[in-house]
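Researcher: We're teaching a course module on how sequence relates to structure. For the next exercise, students receive a sequence and then see the predicted structure as tokens, so they can try to spot secondary structure elements on their own. Here is the exercise chain.
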Amino acid sequence: MIFVIFGNSLSRCKKKEMELIFIAKPCALGLNIQANGPQKAQPNAILEKVFTAITKHPDEKRLEGLSKQLDWDVRNIQRWFRQRRNQEKPSTLTRFCESMWRFTFYLYVFTYGVRFLKKTPWLWNTKQCWYNYPYQPLTPDLHYYYILELSFYWSLMFSQFTDIKRKDFVIMFLHHLATISLITFSYVNNMARVGTLVMCLHDAADALLEAAKMANYAKFQKLCDLMFVMFAIVFITTRLGIFPLWVLNTTLFESWEIVGPYPSWWVFNLLLLLIQVLNCFWSYLIIKIACKAISKGKAGKWNPLHVSKDDRSDIESSSDEEDSVLPAKNPHNPTTNTNGTSGTSGTNGYLTGGPCAEEH
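Model: And here is the predicted structure for the students to work with:
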């Protein structure tokens, strides 16, 4: 099974690359989404060596040392490192393509899950998940559903370490780990029936979130706000309402009555409760964003970006960048050479450039 999962993950990556090149990118260009990333930092051999070999976040002591070595103002050096970190972040075009790929997958897997479950008896009567357990047949459709979901989350787990780290890296890592453990554990212990209910329920809102992101990148703000509102309603309804009242009810109480508690029962329900804790955390973030948007509306200054702003934004910004040109520590020595290049190359203490726009 492990080889099948890794094979599916590799196949998904290839399909993803093909879609990004032949489908998502032309769609993005058709919507006038350009591949413009954050502003690039000016070349500087000394700072680049520190950035790549030592640290991307220099402390105050190191900043002071670099300031003396380069004869730059500390503020300029901080700006250079901020711009250099942002330089590695993906462009809006890349983000749109990634969201389009995820939207396509979430829409497909949710549609497949609904079509599969509506033909099963345990969708309408959750006690059917436990009758004749553990001697329940594993059908090809159910097996395909599990392999599809598991390969997807394994690919997310791997890509998380190669992509730019976001603010919620730990939370997402914990989520992926819990999800993979839950899917694998339910498959191995033949709890696949209730597992399909969990997977389909948690896939319901994901496509709407990716649609909201795509609309935001394309600057269709009204559509973005509508998608976000729909996402928030579906997310909170399914994960804080239906999931505990329907799924947790059958895994905690109906299973206890029909098959009784056993060692793997405790592990399975512990993982489900961990997922529910994460659901509560994300619901809190969604409600927090919605409250900010409502408060702005009541103040008579409606800003729809407050609805769609991504709190996971990984583009750094600062009020320091409002100035287009900041003077160096020694502005009267414009020809100082610090890295073997001419003074007019921009490495002599002057760091020019406009503001670095925050990614929403």
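Model: If you want an answer key for the exercise: Confidence is low (pLDDT under 50) at residues 2-6, 299-360. Residues 92-309 form one domain.
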